[in-house]
Design goal:
heterodimer, A: alpha/beta, Rossmann fold, five-stranded parallel sheet, B: alpha/beta
């Protein structure tokens, strides 16, 4: 099967060429505490064992913006729109300086979260969905978006055993409830709702992440396998 | 609010006056003179400047130093700065009924970022949350005048300032001229698009300032006559010498009468 021609999510970058991108981009999406990093670690090792080079990239991990975003988060003073813009700058930096070069060089790019995270969080915060989608319109459309879905009852113990109910992951800026725990449940429920609403809009591949990590990983690999076969065929 | 709504006036009791123009157009000098005039008339004024928020200053500096900024990251970072200042330094004083004076506004991004290669439509969409200014002065000069003014008394042009990241030349002076030319083209096209008030930036400073004040007096007539409050009330005002306070209002009125 021939490779789907690379496409921008929206308007794209007018000055960047994407005609020839022999690599593939796989995105793992899902809310906080769903287990994305564990799954990405297992997945990347497996892809490499199949002989493909992997470049991993993650939300807020750009050299340019990472420290600024951390500082902004510790302050609790930013309005939602400024946050969206900080994330957009972070993403643009990684897209242009990391993701596109890796795809041009034939790597498999595994992304921990993508623009959908911004769409979900901003929607929960009441931002104009048209504005944020247009803002991130320079994003490249991934070859595969795996959305790790989970029930809130399974999610909460994972959050509590992980980072705990932190300020931002609990959506404390939204003041949804009196206690941190209740606020966190309400916030995560809303985020899950937004992700589920995007399944059809963006054609997510949904994987149930409520089970064991091994089962989840098996389900993810099944979906990735097809892309790797395609790549192997192109290179044969 | 729909996207690209630059027509609906903002709902705040304050007034937003902004200046635009390429480097060396004299806009900052003129805005400073206008600020001093407004303050001397007793109007509550708040000043804000492009790219000045603490939030992204270090980031922009780092990116510039490493020359790692792309046209898109450059553009978004400036919008981060703007969004931050809007939330803290523009909207609150407008709500408080003050006059906000902004040295550069979204039109700077529409001109400069597009000259750098980002799409016109995208950058306009990004700034669609910005309130429309009550007066947007555009100080028009040619790129040649800009080059001449900037190179006098400035030893070296900076990499991004000269547009060396996007222009097809390694010569800073040549690049700066080409870059300013591309920016002027964008500005000129925006005069009609956004109804910018053009001021000829090559005339004497005094003449330009008189024109600015006359335009302001006409456009903000209602506000300016209401803005200077009666002298009784706050203790802070009571401390002001009575002579100065009485001197103020007639001046505002005479400016109006002179029209």
């Amino acid at each position: 099967m021939p490779q789907r021609p690379p496409r921008w999510l929206g308007q794209g970058l007018s000055y960047a060429a994407i005609e020839h991108l022999p690599g593939r981009m796989i995105v793992l999406e899902g809310t906080d505490g769903v287990g994305r990093s564990t799954q990405i670690e297992m997945l990347s090792a497996w892809i490499e064992s199949q002989g493909f080079g992997v470049v991993s990239t993650g939300w807020t991990r750009s050299a340019l913006m990472g420290p600024t975003i951390d500082r902004a988060k510790s302050g609790h003073t930013l309005d939602a729109r400024t946050f969206s813009l900080l994330y957009a700058a972070d993403f643009a930096d990684r897209l242009e300086l990391q993701i596109l070069p890796a795809l041009r060089a034939g790597f498999v790019v595994v992304a921990d979260r993508y623009v959908y995270t911004a769409f979900a969080r901003d929607a929960v915060r009441g931002a104009d969905p048209g504005w944020v989608r247009e803002l991130f319109g320079f994003a490249l459309e991934p070859d595969l978006v795996i959305y790790m879905d989970i029930d809130i009852d399974v999610l909460m113990p994972r959050i509590l055993n992980g980072k705990g109910c932190t300020y931002w992951e609990s959506g404390m800026d939204l003041k949804l409830a009196d206690s941190i725990y209740d606020n966190c449940v309400e916030y995560q429920n809303r985020v899950l709702g937004e992700f589920r609403r995007m399944v059809d809009e963006f054609g997510f591949d949904v994987v149930n992440a409520s089970g064991t990590r091994e089962n989840t990983q098996r389900a993810i690999r099944r979906r990735v396998q097809k892309l790797l076969k395609e790549m192997a065929a192109e290179r044969a | 609010m729909p996207l690209h709504d630059y027509v609906t006036p903002h709902p705040y009791p304050g007034k937003l006056i902004i200046v635009e123009g390429i480097d060396g157009s004299g806009k900052s000098t003129q805005l400073d003179l206008l600020r001093k005039y407004l303050e001397s008339e007793g109007h509550p004024v708040h000043f804000t400047e492009w790219n000045s928020s603490a939030l992204v200053k270090d980031t922009t500096k780092k990116g510039k130093k490493q020359k790692s900024l792309t046209p898109t990251t450059f553009s978004i970072l400036h919008c981060c700065d703007f969004a931050e200042r809007l939330a803290y330094s523009i909207i609150p004083p407008l709500k408080g009924g003050m006059i906000v004076l902004a040295d550069r506004y979204m039109y700077t991004a529409f001109a400069r970022d597009v000259a750098r290669g980002v799409s016109r439509e995208w950058v306009r969409g990004m700034y669609s949350f910005a309130p429309k200014p009550d007066i947007a002065y555009y100080f028009q000069i040619t790129p040649e005048v800009s080059v001449e003014r900037i190179l006098t008394g400035r030893p070296q042009l900076k990499y991004y300032e000269a547009g060396l990241d996007v222009m097809d030349t390694d010569d800073p002076v040549e690049s700066f001229g080409l870059f300013q030319g591309a920016i002027v083209n964008e500005y000129d096209a925006m005069v009609d698009e956004f109804g910018l008030t053009v001021i000829d930036g090559t005339r004497p400073i005094y003449t330009q300032q008189q024109e600015m004040r006359a335009i302001m007096a006409e456009k903000l007539d209602d506000y300016l006559t209401r803005s200077v409050p009666p002298r009784r009330g706050s203790t802070a005002r009571r401390r002001t010498p009575a002579k100065a306070s009485t001197a103020k209002r007639p001046t505002a009125a005479s400016t109006k009468a002179a029209k």
